[in-house]
């Protein structure tokens, strides 16, 4: 598959001549595409029954055509650029159009005020950023967590974790039920809150909702940490589920919290992994970089396969814990141009994740109807975890 088009049989193997930093990502994309296709076809079968939209006579098309449509739809999900959005062909031959000066600010992607603008955020009024992420005052449990995480997040472990992720379905349930299950977890890496995960999910989502952000943005706020369910299934502790994320396979940046703990990581002594670029290349793009395995990558893959969240929402989920990058400015030499644009998207989301943490607790049952409706807008009734 290349740019949404089906490769012909005579084309050379798709993995041929790929360098090592792109091979794993290519295999990952192909497996995820097959999983998405499976979910889409199963959902279509459930909705259509025996007579609607199948590949029988009078249906919408053959199975092959339906499969190609599903794949093509996925590749079309990327929002159009300003040029694409404005350079439309005239409806009729010979029809003239009036040139219009258009800037990025003139294009309203959601038919709402620009959701990237946090300048009027209710949340940010009165917030003192210096009171958050104060690791020098953190409990011992936080320091012990990062000591273990930094010593065990190796390239070898990360490759194995991704293989394990793709080999089985751990559970099937509604997203709300998953949030309730997650409520049993106390994140040992978080110095800012002792509240439950569902409290944090609602605090984040309600802060986004209060600022009148789009519904998909609110949904991301609600489920951004849902990948922590991994703790109840395949984890080896909390060190491979929660905490800040960082690239493996290259030198560990000094901007990563508790950097000294990497002395216990064997990769820090491996000449293949301890240089600036390691197994990567300059500006190879973050999608070609392996970040430490945890709830971000896990939930990103689930949402990419089984939700209709836009690319910006998926990016928020995947990189919201990558603080060395979006907060400290590290690893810019691995970014490609698209990452620079999406960095702003993650930075738009981050204040809601971080600064919404407080002692305020919402009445879960009162908010439940609203968020059930929101979840159903973007996720199927049963999600495979």
From TrEMBL:
One GO MF term: inositol oxygenase activity
Ranges of biased composition (kind: Acidic residues): 103-114
Annotated binding of Fe cation, by residue: 200, 224-225, 295, 320, 353
Domain of life: Eukaryota
Coiled coil: none
GO BP term, pick one: inositol catabolic process
The keyword Metal-binding is annotated on this UniProt entry: yes
Residue segments, region Disordered: 41-120
Swiss-Prot/TrEMBL keywords: Cytoplasm, Iron, Metal-binding, Oxidoreductase
Enzyme Commission (EC) number: 1.13.99.1
Catalyses which reaction(s): myo-inositol + O2 = D-glucuronate + H2O + H(+)
Ranges of compositional bias, category Gly residues: 48-61
Principal place of residence: cytoplasm
Broad EC category: oxidoreductase
Binding site for substrate: 133, 187-189, 228, 243-244, 320-321
GO CC entries: cytoplasm
InterPro entries: Inositol_oxygenase (IPR007828)
Name by which UniProt lists this protein: Inositol oxygenase
Originating organism: Brettanomyces naardenensis
Taxonomic lineage of the native organism: Eukaryota, Fungi, Dikarya, Ascomycota, Saccharomycotina
């Amino acid at each position: 598959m290349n740019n949404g088009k089906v490769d012909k049989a005579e084309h050379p193997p798709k993995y041929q001549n790929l360098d090592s930093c792109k091979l794993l990502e290519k295999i990952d994309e192909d497996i995820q595409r097959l999983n998405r296709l499976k979910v889409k076809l199963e959902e279509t079968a459930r909705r259509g029954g025996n007579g609607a939209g199948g590949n029988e006579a009078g249906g919408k098309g053959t199975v092959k055509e339906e499969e190609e449509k599903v794949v093509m739809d996925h590749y079309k999900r990327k929002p159009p650029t300003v040029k694409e959005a404005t350079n439309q062909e005239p409806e009729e031959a010979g029809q003239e159009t009036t040139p219009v000066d258009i800037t990025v600010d003139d294009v309203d992607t959601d038919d709402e005020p620009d959701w990237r603008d946090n300048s009027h955020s209710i949340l940010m009024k009165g917030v003192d950023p210096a009171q958050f992420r104060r690791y020098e005052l953190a409990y011992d449990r936080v320091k012990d967590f990062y000591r273990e995480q930094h010593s065990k997040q190796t390239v070898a472990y990360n490759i194995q974790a991704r293989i394990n992720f793709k080999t089985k379905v751990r559970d099937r349930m509604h997203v709300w039920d998953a949030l309730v299950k997650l409520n049993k977890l106390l994140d040992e890496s978080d110095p800012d809150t002792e509240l439950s995960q569902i409290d944090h999910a609602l605090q984040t989502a309600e802060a986004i909702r209060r600022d009148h952000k789009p519904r998909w943005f609110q949904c991301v706020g609600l489920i951004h940490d849902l990948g922590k369910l991994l703790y109840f299934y395949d984890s080896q502790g909390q060190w491979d589920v929660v905490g800040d994320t960082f690239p493996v396979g290259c030198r560990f940046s000094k901007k990563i919290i508790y950097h000294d703990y990497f002395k216990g990581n064997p990769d820090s002594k491996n000449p293949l992994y301890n240089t600036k670029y390691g197994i990567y290349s300059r500006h190879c793009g973050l999608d070609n970089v392996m970040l430490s395995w945890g709830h971000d990558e896990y939930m990103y893959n689930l949402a990419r396969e089984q939700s209709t969240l836009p690319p910006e929402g998926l990016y928020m989920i995947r990189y919201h814990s990558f603080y060395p990058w979006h907060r400290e400015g590290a690893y810019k030499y691995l970014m490609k141009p698209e990452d620079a644009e999406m960095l702003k998207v993650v930075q738009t989301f981050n204040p809601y994740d971080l600064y919404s943490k407080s002692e305020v607790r919402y009445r879960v049952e009162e908010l439940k109807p609203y968020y059930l409706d929101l979840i159903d807008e973007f996720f199927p009734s049963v999600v495979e975890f």
